[in-house]
Amino acid sequence: MKCDPDAALELLPVALAALEGLDDWGHDPIYGILSEKAAELEIKNGRIMWPVRVALTARPVTPGGAIEIAEILGKEETLKRIKSAISQLEAANG
Question: Helix-strand-coil percent breakdown of the chain, rounded to 5?
Fold first, then answer.
């Protein structure tokens, strides 16, 4: 599943806000909150997970998925990288 920059710019702030509110930083809570947001937006999970994974790794293909990478990086680094990706997308959009 791929995501264009416009969709990423729409979905990354949603993911960021959801993840900022998590107190329990583990696989199940991260997956749960992102899946919940996907359901609210009536999109498949991959539509929100893919831009998160790319924001975290700067790569479209990785051995692990968004959830595993976020768990390994930790909350602070995950949020930092998502904010950076949003800033970069905003700058590219002018």
Answer: 75, 0, 25
The rounded distance, in Å, linking the Cα atoms of 66 and 35 is: 12
Structure tokens at 61: 């293909």
Structural domain for 49, as ranges? 5-93
Contact between residue 81 and residue 55 where contact means Cβ atoms under 8 Å apart: yes
Number of domains in the chain: 1
User: Would you say 44 and 1 are in contact if contact means Cβ atoms under 8 Å apart?
Assistant: yes
Distance between CA atoms of 45 and 38, rounded to whole angstroms? 5
Which pair of tokens denotes residue 93? 């959009």
**Predicted TM-score (pTM) of this structure:** 0.93
Confidence of residue 37 (pLDDT cuts 50, 70, 90): very high
pLDDT, one tens digit per residue, over 39-52 is 999 999 999 999 99
